[in-house]
């Protein structure tokens, strides 16, 4: 009898252990990487929501999070190199070519083809993370660039406010009035030179280049266009701006030129106009790090006009440039279906709304709710003109040459035409003569 009870107890114990093992097997591990910066709190809250959603569906997901506060990009590549890369990772759109070239990132074409929410993303948000005909990330946030101006400075200069230029010449005309009538103010700022780095290319050069209808990387043949009327027009803008004294070169050579021009200059009314990323509006909030106590009274923005109406890329009257972050899936992930569920959750209208409220920026979906007047206005008035940097493994080196070209013009070392010729020579040396082309300048 005792033996029978013992056998029964053993059977029950083995049975319970089997159930326990089955439950343990139900827990699925998913590794996720994103930058551990001010976005952390919001992203972690969203991840908790995903875990809760799966739990309600009877699936236990163990999300292992990696959120380095510094050197995110370098750490991510080191992890992949060591064979411990994440299943899902946050990626800045301009770095996608590096991951594609290294065969680290999964194309999402089959996933989005079957996703009924894909059309809720505007075309620009589909194009930005795509190259070679494939989509590599789903964007969850973006930004844009506009022309900010000091209403008080322009009024003192005799320029009608609200300021709504429709051409470059109208901007230069306003700068001339500031120069003549408010001589203690630097009329304008467009990011220039090598010290500002990618800001010069993204916030400065491309805002001009696109406004002249320029395409830097020909999508038809994959060649870099190193000489063109649009390139000459963009470089000529810099030549006029510095040659006519509408901006000052010296501050661009300081270690942190943004402090002089934006954090202090535009904030204190010592700079009249600046082409810059839209998020500075929040920095200038009365309780922001670059606070302007009466911001709404003295600061405003307007879409950046093309060289003249219709001269912009795709025949546009206005232009803007966007960057942004998306969620991508590792090509080596052993659980891509769950990873895609995670990406869908993190890029839902509700999640993007929550992210935008918590972190800022511009939502990447058309159906995300926006309750901030500035963001709503930007989305309506500027996002339709959004374009993006070319996705290429050679882009960073080409961008450096753009920065060098603007610096030569800024310092009076080269005319616009000379700077373009030197740019063409340098890029040809980087990518090879067979990978460049020159368009007629007539």
What's the name of the CATH homologous superfamily of the largest domain? Periplasmic binding protein-like II
Give me the CATH fold name of the largest domain.
D-Maltodextrin-Binding Protein, domain 2
Q: How is the main sheet built? A: 5 strands, mixed
Look at the helices and sheets and give the structural class: alpha/beta
Q: Tally of extended strands? A: 16
CATH architecture of the largest domain: 3-Layer(aba) Sandwich
Oligomeric state, counting identical vs distinct chains:
single chain
What Rg, in angstroms, do the CA atoms define? Answer: 26 Å
Task: Give the averaged pLDDT, no decimals.
Answer: 92
What report would you give on this structure?
There is one protein chain. The chain is α/β, with parallel strands linked by helices and 442 residues long. It has 2 domains: 172 residues, 3-Layer(aba) Sandwich (D-Maltodextrin-Binding Protein, domain 2), CATH 3.40.190; 225 residues, D-Maltodextrin-Binding Protein, domain 2 (3-Layer(aba) Sandwich), CATH 3.40.190.10. Helices cover 45% and strands 16% of the residues. Strand 1, helix 2 and strand 2 form a beta-alpha-beta unit.
């Amino acid at each position: 009898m005792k033996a029978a009870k013992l056998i029964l107890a053993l059977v029950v114990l083995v049975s319970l252990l089997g159930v326990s093992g089955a439950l343990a097997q139900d827990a699925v591990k998913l590794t996720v990487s994103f930058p551990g910066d001010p976005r952390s709190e919001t992203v972690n809250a969203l991840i908790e929501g995903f875990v809760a959603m799966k739990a309600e569906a009877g699936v236990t997901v163990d999300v292992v999070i990696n959120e380095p506060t510094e050197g995110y990009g370098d750490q991510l590549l080191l992890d992949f190199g060591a064979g411990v890369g994440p299943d899902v990772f946050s990626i800045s759109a301009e770095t996608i070519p590096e991951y594609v070239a290294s065969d680290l990132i999964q194309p999402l074409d089959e996933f989005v083809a079957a996703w009924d929410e894909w059309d809720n993303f505007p075309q620009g948000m589909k194009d930005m993370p795509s190259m070679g005909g494939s989509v590599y990330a789903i964007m969850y946030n973006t930004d844009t660039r506009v022309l900010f101006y000091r209403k008080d400075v322009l009024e003192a200069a005799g320029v009608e406010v609200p300021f709504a230029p429709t051409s470059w010449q109208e901007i230069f005309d306003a700068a001339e009035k500031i120069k003549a009538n408010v001589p203690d103010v630097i009329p304008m700022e467009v990011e220039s030179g090598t010290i500002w780095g990618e800001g010069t290319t993204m916030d400065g050069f491309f805002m001009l280049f696109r406004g002249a209808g320029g395409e830097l990387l020909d999508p038809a043949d994959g060649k870099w266009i190193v000489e063109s009327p649009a390139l000459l027009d963009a470089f000529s803008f810099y030549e006029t701006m510095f040659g006519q004294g509408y901006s000052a070169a010296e501050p661009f050579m300081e270690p942190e030129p943004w402090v002089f021009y934006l954090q202090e200059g535009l904030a204190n009314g010592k700079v009249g106009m600046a082409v810059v990323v839209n998020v500075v509006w929040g920095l200038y909030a009365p309780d922001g790090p670059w606070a302007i106590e009466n911001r709404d009274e003295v600061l405003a923005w307007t879409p950046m006009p093309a060289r003249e109406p219709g001269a912009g890329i795709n025949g546009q009257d206005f232009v803007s440039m966007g960057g942004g972050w998306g969620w991508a899936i590792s090509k080596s992930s052993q659980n891509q279906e769950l990873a895609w569920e995670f990406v869908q959750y993190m890029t839902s209208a509700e999640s993007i709304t929550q992210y935008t409220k918590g972190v800022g920026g511009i939502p990447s979906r058309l159906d995300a709710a926006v309750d901030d007047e500035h963001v709503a206005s930007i989305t309506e008035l500027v996002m339709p003109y959004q374009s993006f940097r070319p996705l290429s493994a050679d882009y960073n080196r080409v961008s450096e040459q753009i920065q060098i070209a603007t610096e030569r013009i800024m310092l009076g070392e080269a005319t616009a035409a000379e700077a373009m010729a030197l740019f063409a020579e340098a890029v040809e040396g980087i990518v090879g003569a067979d990978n460049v082309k020159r368009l007629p300048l007539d």
